[in-house]
Amino acid sequence: MRKTKKRRIRNRVLRFLFTLMLVFFIAFFLSGGIWVLHPRTWQNFGDFLPQLSYEPPAIQESGEPQVMRWSDRLSRFLFIRRAVNARVQRDDYVPLSEIPDSLQQAVVAVEDNRFYSHHGFDPTGIARAALVNIQYGQIEEGASTITQQLVKNLFLSHERSWGRKGEELLLALDIEANYSKDEILELYLNTIYYGSNFYGIGPASQGYFGKKPADLILPESAMLAGLPNAPSLYSPYVDFIAAKKRQMVVLDAMAKNGYIDEQMAEDAKIKPLSFAR
After folding, report:
1. CB within 8 Å of 169: residues ≥ 6 apart
2. CB 117 within 8 A of CB 181
3. Which carries the bigger pLDDT value, residue 36 or residue 92?
């Protein structure tokens, strides 16, 4: 009898404490405390961790990729901005405000025309690629968005496996939760490979056209935007005809997506290009 009474008292106390905590958290969130759950809030805690030393982006690494511990993978996911900063070279970094709209639009049009509407991955593209991959029993076709390409360029190997694609997807969602679209596009343009040993839009603009990105005109922007698809093949210093054909594809994509009209595209296709070499 006495044990039953004690149990009832204990249960009442526990219920009271639970109710009190529930009321506290509801009041906390309603008063603005919901910010604690926002992904960007956690990035500030990364500032209290030891600063990471600079590592070149994965796209620039040679040889076998290093095996990461699960603790490092978790830390990268929780503090993605800290991890990104450790992989980005700032010497030749070009802010988006100094990159012409024509280049931004060209990249979005040809690489990821739903960039501003998705959240890191494109379900339509994934569904299409999944059907192809199931048909062949292996990964034959990708559906990478600009965000996924950024993740791959910064952190991941070129291994074609379901595990690597899964990690790519998770990190892309993480990037989208912690960066604006403009920040993502800016990082992408500054880390992608443009062929002929040019990494980033700054070195590529100078290396191909001898000018700063801000001074690029539409035909030049379209050519640069087409290079990352196959930089070793499309570099005009390697194969000008292939580079020119790719430029036309980019201009057609820009017209199709409403960034330029058909006449502007045709004029840009026939405009002579002057290269730095």
Report:
1. 120, 121, 148
2. no
3. 92
CA distance 235 to 248: 14
Is a pLDDT exceeding 50 seen at residue 201?
yes
CA distance to 53, 123, 148, 194, per residue, from 184 (Å): 22, 19, 10, 18
CB 227 within 8 A of CB 235: yes
Q: Rounded to whole angstroms, how far apart are CA atoms 235 and 275?
A: 12
Nearest CA-CA partner of 199 in 92, 276, 106, 104:
92
Distances, alpha carbon 94 to alpha carbons 15, 188, 198, 277, in Å? 58, 11, 14, 22
Q: What's the one-letter identity of residue 276? A: A
CB 196 within 8 A of CB 230: no
Q: Give the mean pLDDT of the chain.
A: 82
240-256 and 101-111 are packed helices; what angle lies between their axes, rounded to 10 degrees?
90
Alpha-carbon distance of 277 to 271, in angstroms, equals 18
pTM of the model: 0.79
In eight-state DSSP terms, residue 146 is H
Instruction: Express each pLDDT in 116-156 by its tens digit.
Output: 998 887 777 666 666 655 665 555 445 689 999 999 999 98
Highest mean pLDDT among 13-27, 41-55, 99-113: 99-113
Q: Is the pLDDT of residue 49 over 80?
A: no
Q: What pLDDT is attached to residue 36?
A: 46
What pLDDT score was predicted for residue 97?
96
Angle between the N-to-C axes of helices 181-191 and 146-155, in degrees from 0 to 180, rounded to the nearest 10:
50
- Specify the fold of 41-46+68-270: Penicillin binding protein transpeptidase fold (1.10.3810)
